[in-house]
Each structure stands twice: as structure tokens, then as C-alpha cells.
Amino acid sequence: MHEEKEVVLSSLQIVCWWEWRRLLYNFLLLVIGIASMIGFEFLMGNVIPPGEDAEEPINLFLGVTAYGIMANVCYTMGWIVELATRNASPTLARKRGEKMFRAGLIFSCILTTAPFWYACIFYLTSRH
């Protein structure tokens, strides 16, 4: 039978593992966020009277900036939690870290689509 060898990463290797994936994380959130905002603007533009904004541009800028910062703070918590729990079991902490990355990525991608879904509901409930 083939037995899998346990790989124990150093603290620096764990941080590097997470930080290399941060590039993918931010890229995906950027692409999904742009698509979500395009959908939001399109749908809201069909319901809101001409000349009015669905959202003030400065609020949009501040909201997107705050979301990006908070998404990255939460992302950083991934490697902090992994490092904090590795003393008990490095192998279990590594597996948990990989699961946290996948779950956090999926959750963040879904959350990033929220403006589009809000616009869908607004569009459907505002039509005459």
C-alpha cells in the first residue's frame, strides 16, 4: 500500500504558500467584482430614471476600497490561524489551511457578486 509522507512546512513556507495564492485570490475577486458591477450598473440603469446614479461614484469607490481591504484582512487570518494551530498538529493545521483557503475563496467570490444580485432583485421588484 502507498503511504503518504507527511510534509511539515516551516512558518515562512506557510506564509509564502498563502501569499502566493493571494495573487490568485485578488485577481479572481477583481474580475468577479468588475463583472458584478457591470451587471449592477446595467440592471439599475434600466430602472433608475435617466440622470440619476444607482450609487454615488464616491460611495462606490469607498465601498469597493473598503471591501478590498477587508477581504485581504480576512485572507491574512488564514495563515495566522494556520500558524497559531500548527503546534498541536502541523499536518492537521496544513490540511485545515488548505480547506480554509478553498472555502474562503469560494465564499469571497460569492460575496463579491452581491451587488449584481441586489440589482437583480431591485430590477424585478421595480418594474411596472
What attributes does this structure have?
78% helix; single chain; mainly alpha; 128 residues
For the termini, the CA-CA separation is 67 Å
Name the beta content range.
under 5%
Mean pLDDT: 90
String of helices and strands: HHHH
Helix count from the secondary structure assignment: 4
Quaternary: single chain
Query: Count of DSSP E strands?
Result: 0
- Backbone shape: elongated
Rg result: 20 Å
Low-confidence stretches: none
Helix content: over 70%
| Structural class determined from secondary elements | mainly alpha
Largest pleated sheet = none
Task: Give the secondary structure arrangement, pairings included.
Layout: H1 11-45, H2 57-85, H3 90-112, H4 114-126
Helix pairs in contact: 1-2, 1-3, 1-4, 2-3
Walk me through this protein's architecture:
The protein is mainly alpha-helical and 128 residues long. It has a domain at 11-19 and 57-128. Helix content is 78%, strand content 0%. It has helices at 11-45, 57-85, 90-112, 114-126. The model has no long low-confidence stretch (mean pLDDT 90).
Short précis:
The protein has 128 residues and is mostly helical. It has four helices and no strands.
